[in-house]
Design brief:
With 417 residues, this protein is an alpha+beta fold. The protein has 15 helices and 16 strands. The protein binds histidyl-adenosine monophosphate.
């Protein structure tokens, strides 16, 4: 019997990990520049945390969560997103007590049982950030600018930023009623999913990807025309800040995110380099979430981005192709006695901070030279009985095809230089 990875999961192979590590380091660098600090939360949580925050009626909670009962009969769920866990940790650890604004970021696997396709996995990875404690539009703009800056680091500058305001508890209920009344009039012509949503969450009908739904709902009232004074001026402020940051955006009054915790600002970054799963990142404000989860009322805003989707663009554009981990030096042995010396020296060089490799498979000198080449070593040193006798050997620089004789005792010093 052979085993295969679970459908919708992927091995990230040694040929790919240098790119992942590089991307992760760039993401961290940008977050640090914006003064966000890393938080790491467990991979599973109480199921009710997600039901409460993301919303019982969302697709994620309704049909995509990996939920299981453990041996103590507790219902647990592999995290489908990061915000709920971060807010849980914020409340549990009183993070808001010592500082008015908590700015955290995370890189983590997430789990959703969706239908796998290009750019959509069941275990995927996100980087994301949350700013907890500011109700000000300045933070909305900062978070959006930060997301865009990360893509700019990879020369991905042509993504589209869509923004909307989904209102608050004051204006949204009234708008929902108005929309519901209009939608009921055309209910029978809509897709089954949209028909169901008219009663459950009418705003999601406007977010339908079904062509016919889109056509039928083209002239429906939009939330942007029904915002209360506070939401409206907040939205205006966000837009003018984005303009002052030289960030272009499209106001999309139909943008409703698939998670129920949002209030006011919602946004998405999409790329036409991706196929049908074109969302690179998404986020928004969640001013009621902390109190919803039992904490003191604290506003918040954040975003998360799919790393696999960023990788798809990086691969498509052939960016970061030259990243590789390779030995600085390959110590090749010309005979059996010198083989012992090369192994010993290799270990010693490694403890001195030098990436060294030797032959551990008893191969011929010719095969060792081929291996040094395949490993893309910067230098190769061939050592045999004669070299050990004279205590000197020829150091070949494989990059510039130069060689020079050096004393063996000086090897580490020369390589460090
Ligand atoms: P989300 O829109 O559900 O938001 O996910 C954010 C990003 O994760 C998406 O734009 C996409 O790039 C990636 N993603 C989502 N599902 C998959 C999947 N099945 N396979 C591959 N990539 C995927 C959130 O998760 C919110 N927590 C964002 C947020 C943070 N809002 C406020 N703070």
């Amino acid at each position: 019997m052979t085993f295969k990875s679970i459908r919708g999961t992927k091995d990230i192979l040694p040929s790919e990990t240098p790119r992942w590590q590089y991307v992760e380091s760039v993401v961290r660098t940008v977050f640090h520049r914006f003064n966000y600090k890393e938080i790491r939360t467990p991979v599973f949580e109480q199921t009710s945390l997600f039901a409460r925050s993301i919303g019982e009626l969302t697709d994620i909670v309704g049909k995509e969560m990996y939920t299981f009962t453990d041996r103590s009969d507790d219902s647990l769920t592999l995290k489908p997103e990061g915000t709920a866990s971060v807010i849980r940790a914020f409340i549990q650890n009183n993070l808001g007590e010592s500082q008015p604004l908590v700015k955290v970021y995370y890189l983590s696997p997430m789990f959703r049982q969706e239908r796998p396709q290009a750019g959509r996995l069941r275990q995927f990875h996100q980087f994301g950030a949350e700013a907890i404690g500011s109700s000000f539009a300045e933070t909305d703009a900062e978070v959006i600018a930060m997301a865009i800056e990360i893509y700019r680091q990879f020369s991905i500058v042509n993504c589209e930023l869509k923004i909307n305001s989904v209102g608050c508890e004051k204006c949204r209920p009234l708008y929902k009623k108005t929309l519901q009344t209009e939608l009921r009039k055309i209910a029978l012509q809509l897709s089954p999913d949209s028909q169901r949503r008219i009663e459950e969450n009418p705003m999601r009908v406007l977010d339908s990807k079904n062509e016919n739904d889109i056509r039928l709902t083209a002239s429906m009232p939009l939330i942007t025309d029904h915002l209360c004074e506070e939401c409206s001026s907040h939205f205006e402020k966000v837009k003018s800040l984005l303009t002052s940051f030289h960030i272009s955006y499209i106001v999309d009054g139909r943008l409703v995110r698939g998670l129920d915790y949002y209030t006011k600002t919602a946004f998405e970054l999409t790329s036409n380099e991706l196929g049908s799963q074109d969302a690179l990142a998404g986020g928004g404000r969640y001013d009621l979430l902390t109190q919803e989860l039992g904490g003191k009322p604290t506003p918040g805003i954040g975003f998360a981005a799919g790393i696999e989707r960023l990788m798809m663009i990086i691969e498509k554009k052939k960016l970061l192709n030259d990243l590789d981990i390779h030995p600085t030096i390959f110590l090749a042995a010309a005979d059996t006695t010198s083989r012992a010396w090369t192994l010993e020296k290799t270990i010693a060089l490694r403890t001195q901070g030098i990436a060294a490799e030797a032959d551990f498979l008893n191969r011929s000198l010719k095969a060792q030279m081929r291996e040094a080449d395949r490993q893309n070593a910067a230098f190769v040193l061939v050592v045999g009985a004669e070299e050990l006798n004279k205590q000197t050997a020829v150091l070949k620089n494989l990059r510039v095809k130069e060689e020079r004789e050096i004393p063996l005792a000086a090897l580490a010093k020369i390589l460090t230089e």
